[in-house]
Write a structure and sequence with these properties.
With 338 residues, this protein is of the alpha+beta class. Helix content is 46%, strand content 20%. It has two domains: 139 residues, Jelly Rolls (Sandwich); 157 residues, 2-Layer Sandwich (Alpha-Beta Plaits). A five-stranded mixed beta sheet has the order 9-10-8-11-12, with helices on both faces. Strands 1-7-2-5 form a four-stranded antiparallel beta sheet.
């Protein structure tokens, strides 16, 4: 392999490493990043030379690789008002991906800059050929865009509402209203990093509805579904606004509790378990299962584990132990569980 080939491989790897740090691509794996890289166009632009002007036709979004880009609008007075600055890793112009509309602002570099661009037709091709990849990008894009628009002027209210609705559909389980697994996998990373950086505790609770298959067999899927809704209502009554409750599977749930130690999480979990067991929903049903109960396993950072994968593994082991010991109980991970 010659030096020219080595440089080419090194440059390609540097591009992949950069794209992984861009928030809208952060959920992509290495192969997906390579696909994105092949659909991006690279360009350089000089200081003061507009990338596009307010009112121009828009067909692509941009990601800043180097430099600083400013966006501004022209006020009725003729004055130019700067709306935002975009730095390496930031993206802008994304509305052109979803709407055939003219540019709402002028964008120009504050210094010599380089960018990647993604054309709208390329993105919709990805939706057809690699839908999971495109959906990951859309979820991140809508999350950032909604936050960005919320901090701008009131004339963007309708766009913010559209972004929030689309974002909500992307991250929630439609049946229960809880967050979905995709959101959980993303958020648990954020909670872990925040806890580690701030030296704060963080708890993970895994919850299963006991004998759910038997409930379905005895009473039918409608009763099974309603049983899930009953326990979700209890979860929401006892969890804080900053806690995350996600539906991991049919009758499987995961709770993330930031700034919470093992003892505090155990107390909340026990209250939830007690309240679920008191629900009268199955008592008058003609079947073997007369009571709704849950098995819960808890692990905490840093008490149970200091690495995220180990934290998940130990919460799962605690849940297994709760089932093994008879169900309808809360088990906190400790070394005796193994």
């Amino acid at each position: 392999m010659n030096k020219k080939t080595d440089n080419k491989i090194s440059s390609a790897q540097n591009d992949i490493d950069f794209l992984k740090k861009v928030e809208i691509f952060s959920m992509l794996n290495k192969e997906e990043l390579k696909i994105i890289k092949n659909n991006l166009k690279y360009e350089e632009i000089s200081d003061g030379n507009p990338l596009f002007k307010q009112g121009d036709e828009g067909k692509e979004m941009f990601i800043v690789k180097k430099g600083t880009i400013t966006t501004s609008i022209k006020l009725p007075t003729g004055e130019e008002r700067v709306l935002a600055h975009f730095y390496p890793g930031d993206f802008f112009g994304e509305m052109s991906i979803f709407e055939n509309a003219s540019r709402s602002a002028t964008c120009k570099p504050k210094e010599d800059s380089s960018l990647y661009s993604l054309m709208a037709d390329k993105f919709f091709d990805l939706l057809k050929t690699h839908p999971e990849l495109a959906i990951k990008i859309m979820y991140k894009m809508l999350s950032v865009t909604t936050h960005r628009l919320r901090n701008t002027s009131g004339f963007l209210t309708d766009m913010v509402r559209w972004g929030e609705d689309a974002s909500k559909r992307a991250i929630t389980d439609q049946f229960t209203g809880c967050y979905n697994r995709r959101f959980l996998d993303d958020k648990i990373e954020d909670f872990y990093k925040t806890a580690k950086n701030n030296g704060e505790p963080f708890c993970l609770i895994m919850i299963d509805l006991d004998y759910f298959r038997k409930i379905n067999d005895c009473y039918g899927h409608e009763i099974g579904d309603n049983s899930i809704l009953e326990i979700v209502r209890v979860f929401k009554e006892h969890l804080r606004e900053k806690d995350i409750i996600a539906r991991y599977g049919g009758d499987e749930f995961t709770v993330l509790m930031p700034e919470t130690n093992l003892k505090e999480a155990s107390e909340v979990a026990c209250r939830i378990g007690k309240k679920v067991a008191e629900l009268p929903y199955l008592r008058d049903k003609d079947g073997e299962v007369k009571q709704l109960t849950t098995s819960q396993g808890i692990a905490s950072f840093p008490e149970s584990a200091t690495e995220l994968n180990l934290l998940k593994e130990r919460a799962d082991k605690a849940l297994f132990k709760a089932k093994e010991n008879g169900r309808n109980r809360v088990v906190c991970y400790n070394e005796s569980i193994g």
